[in-house]
Structure formats: C-alpha cells, structure tokens
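Hi again,

Forgot to attach this to my earlier email, sorry! This is the prediction with phosphoric acid mono(formamide)ester bound. I've pasted everything inline since the attachment limit keeps bouncing my files.
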Amino acid sequence: MRHLIGIEDLSVGEIENLIAVAEDIIANPKKYNKVAEGKKLATLFYEPSTRTRLSFESAMMELGGNVLGFSEAQSSSAAKGESVADTAKVISCFADIMVMRHFKEGAPMVASLNATVPVINAGDGGHNHPTQTLTDLLTIKMEKGRFNNLTVGLCGDLKFGRTVHSLITALSRYTGINFVLISPEELKIPEYLKDEVLDAKGIPYREVTDLEAVIGELDILYMTRVQKERFFNEQDYIRLKDIYILTPNKLRHAKEDLCIMHPLPRVNEISVSIDKDPRACYFKQVLYGKYIRMALIKMLLEEADK
Ligand code: CP
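Structure tokens for the complex follow:
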C-alpha cells in the first residue's frame, strides 16, 4: 500500500508527473470529474486547519468522490483515548483513502502502518507537511517555470515551520538551488536538516537575521508564521512573533519577478498592502494546492486499485 508521509516518499520523477497531471487538471478540469466516482476520502484532523482539510475535501469532490471525517480530536473517539493505530484500522473500514493531521510527530506514520488504505500526512507536529510542499512546488513551477537555478529565501520560524522542512528537502534534489535562511537565532532550522540534507548534499546555504539585507538576491521569498502553538514559553513567542513583517518599503530592493510565497495562515508577517503587488503569490498558492491534491488522490487511488 502506497502512502505519503514525507516528501521523500516521492521520487523526483513522480513529483514531476504529479505536477504535469495538476497542470492538465487546470487546463481540462472536466476530464477528471469522475476519477474518484464511488470512492470516499476521510479527513482526520486532530489539529486546526482551513486550507489543507478543505482543499482535500474540495479536491475529492471535484474528482467525483465523497468525503467524511472530523475536524478536531475532541469530536472523535480520540477524546475517549482511542489510539491512532486503532483509528487507522477503523477508518480503513469506511474510506478508500485517509488524510491525517496530528499534533504529534510521527502519528501519520503510525496510521500508515495500521491502515489498509493509503494514508496522507497533512502535517505532523513541527515535522513535515508534504502536501504543502507539493503545493509549493506547483506554485514555483507555475510562477517561475523551473526548479533549477533559484535563490530561495526562507524567512521566519524555520525551527517549528514544518512546511519549511519539507520544502528544503524537496528543493535540495534540484541543481543550482541556493538557500538563504532568514531567522532569529532561536528559530533557526533544526540541525538534522543541515546535517542530513544541506551539508550531506553540498547545497549552498547561509543563515542570516536581516531580511532587507538579502531581499534583492532572492528569486523566491517564502515567508512563514511564528508557530505559537509549538512554543513552550509565551514570553518567547511574544518577543519573536513580529520579528519579520514584509512591507512595501522592504520590497523596494527586491527583484521585479520575485515570487512571494506563504503557506498561510498569515498573522502579521506580510502587510495586507502587499496583497495587490503582482509578486504576491500566496493566494494563488492556495488554489494550486487544490489541483496538486487532486493529482495526488488520483495517483494513490490508482495505485491502491492495482
Ligand atoms: N498551509 C496550511 O497548512 O494551512 P492550514 O493550517 O489552514 O491547513
């Protein structure tokens, strides 16, 4: 049974195939409206979500399938102490594919070891968020036309921001990628990413604190929210939460074709006055997320039926 737990579960060729299918869905949506007819997708969300859960549900509906699920742990039998392993066995009786978001790192992996249908990780703690990465890759393809030879600035909470961890892993498989990691000292990317991905693959990167000093070099600026829910100490969160706020003034020295991305939700990191700037790609990114999730559901259902 094929699952998607981390972005590394997909080869470069498979990702490129998913992107090609998503592009075809954008061009020919009617061609795909019976792909999941008679199939059910379950969304098991133990943590809040707007985009990921609703884009999966919308994606399944546009493929002609049906959806079921829960949007908070308290409305499921997790509140009575049911384990993730047992929940995965139970949901396998009701659905053809399941999507899980959980506050504990590794929970979707546990689900995949116990399910008899494909499991998709929709975000596990501060660890991974592979379908956000597929969304980000489709956005980069649509907006920049390539994955090679890009200077990518990642800004904000690089420690707890799981979307950043998955995106670094994914882009490290392409040539000519240069990362600029912009964060305060306390929110730098985890050492394991440096050791196992960046240093292991010889990917050029540098860690800086000043966004304005580097903004002119960037082809992509990936802003992130400081992840309040993962802080142990509220004082630290309050001290760091507004450390980077992208304003029109800070964009003065940015490239004309800069692509500004954000996985959303936004809190204060990007001034709303940037939303109309042609370089703001973050709401287009949301829509791309639906199309790439349609391509992913299609692929996993077809593989499960083999
Ligand atoms: N980007 C993202 O994961 O958004 P949600 O938390 O709303 O799903």
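The radius of gyration is 19 Å. The chain has two domains: 7-129+288-304, 130-285.

That should be everything now.

G.
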